[in-house]
Amino acid sequence: MTVSGRLAFIAGQVALDASGRLVGPGDLAAQTGQALNNLHAVLRSVGADWADVVRFTWYVVDASQVQVIRDVRDAHIRAVLGHRSNPASTLVQVAALFKPEFLVEVDAVASLPA
């Protein structure tokens, strides 16, 4: 994918709801879904959508559960992407995130529409 123009760098999306409460304690799928909901809200606030994302970086405490993340990601973005390939992605296993109850954190880079 060729990227030109302005970029948005969105960092630190975790499973907190609008009230700052953790969604899905102990549930990687629920936490991934909430982190993606939060990411999507930020994308929309800058005039972008899933099709504009060119890169994800995932931080997880258990990389063996990557398929859970893939399944939730695909459920969130496939309606927009259709059969197009997913954006570039890196998954990093970490010893812990900033709070021990968090299982996943996601960052994204989006190419903003003109």
Write down the domain tally. 1
- Order of strands side by side in the largest beta sheet? 1-4-2-3
Rg, Cα atoms, Å: 14 Å
Global outline: globular
Distance between the termini: 16 Å
Output the CATH homologous superfamily: RutC-like
Helix content class: 25-40%
* Overall strand count: 4
Q: What is the CATH topology descriptor?
A: 60s Ribosomal Protein L30, Chain: A
Please give the CATH architecture: 2-Layer Sandwich
The major β-sheet equals: 4 strands, mixed
Helix and strand composition category: alpha+beta
State the order of secondary-structure elements, H for helix, E for strand: EHEHEE
Q: What are the segments in which pLDDT stays under 50 over at least 5 consecutive residues?
A: none
CATH class: Alpha Beta
Number of helical stretches of at least 4 residues? 2
Oligomeric composition of the shown chains? single chain
Overall description:
Strand 2 (53-60), helix 2 (66-81) and strand 3 (88-93) form a beta-alpha-beta unit. This protein has helices at 28-45, 66-81, and strands at residues 7-13, 53-60, 88-93, 104-111. The protein is built from two helices and four strands. The chain has one domain (7-111): 2-Layer Sandwich (60s Ribosomal Protein L30, Chain: A). Helix 1 (28-45) packs parallel to helix 2. The protein is of the alpha+beta class.
